[in-house]
TrEMBL record:
<keyword id="KW-0547">Nucleotide-binding</keyword>
<dbReference type="InterPro" id="IPR003593">
    <property type="entry name" value="AAA+_ATPase"/>
</dbReference>
<dbReference type="InterPro" id="IPR027417">
    <property type="entry name" value="P-loop_NTPase"/>
</dbReference>
<feature type="domain" description="ABC transporter">
    <location>
        <begin position="2"/>
        <end position="226"/>
    </location>
</feature>
<comment type="similarity">
    <text>Belongs to the ABC transporter superfamily.</text>
</comment>
<dbReference type="InterPro" id="IPR012701">
    <property type="entry name" value="CP_lyase_PhnL"/>
</dbReference>
<dbReference type="InterPro" id="IPR017871">
    <property type="entry name" value="ABC_transporter-like_CS"/>
</dbReference>
<dbReference type="InterPro" id="IPR003439">
    <property type="entry name" value="ABC_transporter-like_ATP-bd"/>
</dbReference>
<dbReference type="GO" id="GO:0016887">
    <property type="term" value="F:ATP hydrolysis activity"/>
</dbReference>
<keyword id="KW-0067">ATP-binding</keyword>
<dbReference type="GO" id="GO:0005524">
    <property type="term" value="F:ATP binding"/>
</dbReference>
<dbReference type="Pfam" id="PF00005">
    <property type="entry name" value="ABC_tran"/>
</dbReference>
<protein>
    <submittedName>
        <fullName>Alpha-D-ribose 1-methylphosphonate 5-triphosphate synthase subunit PhnL</fullName>
    </submittedName>
</protein>
Length: 227
């Protein structure tokens, strides 16, 4: 479902005379249905860069980045947007939403974008918000007014609203108490059970060991100059 073949990535520093900085080379990775793979490595090794390459936020300089039937490295913008709506979910560390949109609609939005009936979408959103202990009296408020931990739980609920065939998880248990951490790990297990291919970054070693089938150290994808 997620397959990278000989992927490289460089950054161009336009304010430094167009200097080219290679940050990744020869990255190959395959994640099958129902599998969760953890990206590991020291800070700055390229974990987040690799996730953004898979999601299409960063364009690979070479190689293939296949998610489902699409090569993200060569996909057209409309194809990337369709992939994100239907196939590839991403739970980042930060909640980015339009101000003043109620929390219930923020969580339901991925389903509404797919044409799911509004009542059904809100029902699914309600169930997730309850599981993640967001009080019902907050659902009509914008999550931009919430605490960091509450925003993280809304972000997770939104990321799991649609049953994406592929998921990217960036520190999904960060800032969570024990009860909500357990809920998130259960959501990941449920996604695996229905066949989702998952790539995640977990600094929580216990959580990583519980839900991940294997780990890939991204430092092995560093260009020669960085090794």
């Amino acid at each position: 479902m997620i397959e990278l073949t000989d992927v490289s990535k460089s950054f161009i520093l336009h304010n430094q005379g167009g200097a080219v900085i290679p940050v990744m080379a020869g990255a190959s990775l395959r994640v099958g249905a129902g599998e969760c793979v953890a990206l590991t490595g020291a800070s700055g090794a390229g974990k987040s860069t690799l996730m953004r390459v898979i999601y299409g936020n960063y364009l690979a300089a070479s190689g293939q980045v296949r998610v489902g039937g699409l090569d993200v490295a060569r996909g057209q913008p409309r194809e990337i947007l369709q992939l994100r709506r239907e196939t590839l979910g991403y739970v980042s560390q930060f909640l980015r939403v339009v101000p003043r949109v109620p929390t219930l609609d923020v969580v339901a939005e991925p389903l509404l974008a797919l044409g799911v009936d509004r009542q059904a979408a809100r029902s699914r959103a309600s169930a997730l918000l309850r599981r993640l202990n967001i009080p019902e009296n907050l659902w009509g408020l914008s999550p931009t007014t919430f605490s960091g931990g509450e925003q993280q739980r809304v972000n997770i609920a939104r990321g799991f609203a649609h049953d994406y065939p592929a998921l990217l998880l960036d520190e999904p248990t960060a800032s969570l108490d024990a009860e909500n951490r357990e809920t998130v790990l259960s959501l990941i297990d449920e996604a695996k059970a229905r066949g989702a291919a998952i790539v995640g970054i977990f600094h929580d070693a216990e959580a990583r060991d519980r839900v991940c089938d294997r780990a890939v150290d991204v430092s092995r994808f560093a260009p020669e100059r960085m090794k």
